[in-house]
Amino acid sequence: MNALIIVDVQKDFLPGGRLAVADGDTIIPYINELQSRYDIVVATQDWHPGDHGSFASQHPGHSPFETIVLNGLPQVLWPDHCVQETDGASFADKLRTDKIGAIFRKGMDKRIDSYSGFYDNGRLKKTGLSGFLKDMGVDEVHVCGLAADYCVFFTAMDSLSEGFQTGILLDATKAIDPRQFESKKQAFLQRGGQLY
Ligand code: VGL
Ligand code: ZN
Fold first, then answer.
1. Which CATH number belongs to the domain containing residue 117 in this structure?
2. Which residue in 120, 148, 156, 195 has a CA-CA distance of 20 to 30 Å to 169?
3. Is residue 183 helix, strand or coil?
4. 8 part of the active site
5. Residue 74 falls inside a structural domain
6. Which tens digit of pLDDT belongs to each residue from 71-114?
7. Pocket test for ligand 1, best of 80, 146, 157 (most atoms within 8 A of CB)
8. Is residue 141 part of a domain?
C-alpha cells in the first residue's frame, strides 16, 4: 500500500500569507491530480497556539528568521503563522480534500516546535501518523507540500526512520530557502530516500 502525505498546504504558507513560500500556490493543481495515484492520502496541519514559542513576537528584541535556543533546542523564529482556528491555518481553498482520510495536527505545544508530521522537534511525542500508516498496511510513502526545507524534509526523514520506503515529490513542493533545500536533499538521499 502506498500513501501520499500532503504537508501543511495552508493559507499562511501561500503568497499573501504570514509565512509565504514563494510560488507555494503553484503546486496545488499538481497535488490535486496526484491524489488518485495513492491508496491512502493524509494531510498535516501546522496548528499553533497564538503564543507559540517559535513566534518571534514572543521574544522581545528578536526578529523573524533569527535562531535562538528554545528549551534546549535551536529554534528559528518565525512570523506568527497557522494560529489555531484562524483563516491562515485553514487548507488552501484550491486544495482537494475529498480523498484526505486523516489529518494530523502538530505544533500545539508552545514549548516546542514540530516540523515533522511524525514527531515534535525533540522527538518527545508522536503524532500517531506512523501508527496510522502501519495499521493501514502502508510500506511506501511519498511526501509533498510546504515547505520543502522544513516540514516536508523533516517529515520525509522521519518517514525513513519509521521504516517506510520514502520519496519527496520535487514538483509538488517549494522551499522557503531553495539553497538550504539543496543540502537537505543530499542528506535525504544519503539516508536512503528517493527524489521524484
Ligand atoms: C513550517 C516553519 C514553521 C513548514 C512550519 O510547514 O514548513 N515552517 N512552521
Ligand atoms: Zn509552524
1. 3.40.50.850
2. 120
3. helix
4. yes
5. no
6. 999 999 999 999 999 999 999 999 999 999 999 999 999 999 99
7. 146
8. yes
